[in-house]
Amino acid sequence: MNWTDERVERLTKLWAEGLSASQIAAQLGGVSRNAVIGKVHRLNLPGRVKAGGNAAPARTPKRTSTAPARPATFAPRAPARPAARPVGSEMVKESSEVQPYVEPTYRPGRDVVVPISRKLILTELTERTCKWPIGDPIKDDFHFCGCEAQEASPYCSYHAKLAYQPVSDRRKTAR
DNA sequence: CCCTGATTCGC
DNA sequence: GCGAATCAGG
C-alpha cells in the first residue's frame, strides 16, 4: 500500500477528527497503526497531547550519537475523543448515559443474561470484541455488540450462543 | 493485558 | 519516505 493523495487526505481528515491511529489504520486498510503514526509525523500533523488516555513525553533511548533527536514541535490541542454515537438502545433498557461494561454471563440452569452492548462502530472492533451486528446497517445507529469475545470466537458468550445454536434447539429464542 | 501515541533507524 | 520495533504511559 502506498500513500496516495486520496489516502493521505483521508488520513488527515480522520486524524483531525480525533480517531486513534489504529482506528484510522483499520479504516484505510492495508496499513498498521504504526504506519499511520509515522505518516502523521512525516506530514507534520499536530500530535495528540494529553487527551484522556494517551500522549507520551519525549524519549531518548536507543542508539546514541547519530540522528539528533528532533525537538517536539507540537502545540497542545483540544481533547480528541471520537464523538459517542447517539444510538438507539438494544434489548436492554437504557438508563441515563454511559453504560458500564457488563461481563456477559450465562448460567446453564435457566437465566440468560443479555450483555449490554458497548455499541462499537466498525472501526472500533478488534480481534477480541464481539462482532455481533445490532440494528439496521442502513441507519446510522448501526453498531456492534463489542463485548469481550470468547477465545477464538468473533462473538461474546451470549451472541455465540445465538449464532451457533443447533437447528434443533432453535425455536423460541426471542431476539 | 488492553490500549494510546512517539521515536528511532534499517530498509 | 516508509513502518516495524521499541519505548512510554493510561
UniProtKB/TrEMBL annotation:
Gene3D superfamilies, per the entry: Homeodomain-like
Disordered: region residues: 48-92
Low complexity biased stretches: 55-86
InterPro entries: GcrA
Pfam family, one: GcrA
Protein name: GcrA cell cycle regulator
